[in-house]
Amino acid sequence: MEFMESSADPSAQLQALREQLQRQAEQEAAETAELQRQLRALAERLQELEERPDRAQRLALPSIPRPRPTRRQIGALLLGVPVGLALALGLRQALQPRSAPPAAAAAQLELEAGEPSWLEVRQLNGESVFVGELVGRRRFALGEGLQVLAGRPDLVRVQVGEAPDRLLGSVEQVEWQTFKPNER
Question: Rounded to two decimals, what is the model's pTM?
Fold first, then answer.
């Protein structure tokens, strides 16, 4: 902080100090808002990766300089190519995940909140799936069905499968809502 000469008017010094503190507070608030925005973006990206592990495997890793192979390593590699190729092809087929046809894809419940809203999601048998504050977007496998309770339903948008999204409810509708896979 800047200090003024002692001969200056104390009230002027105090006013200058207040203005300086105000500027610092505004700057810190802007930096905090930017950090929160970046954190939300990272949380959304992490959620996407958790929901689609196939995308996580395709992410580019940081480039690391690789050491050059020696002649001995190259020779061993060339001698082992036919055997290694046969093994790799066989293992690839054996380890290939069997995916369900797109028509049989599991229905999902997608919840999105632009502002923080407390939320609980549970299965129809009462088993809790998620409890916490929702900011951004989260998807849940619908299974047999899910129940949702939001502290601020007017801030939460819900989408079941391919149906259009809608608000969970008005601010007064703080009650459990049930969603099943066949609902639109």
Answer: 0.44
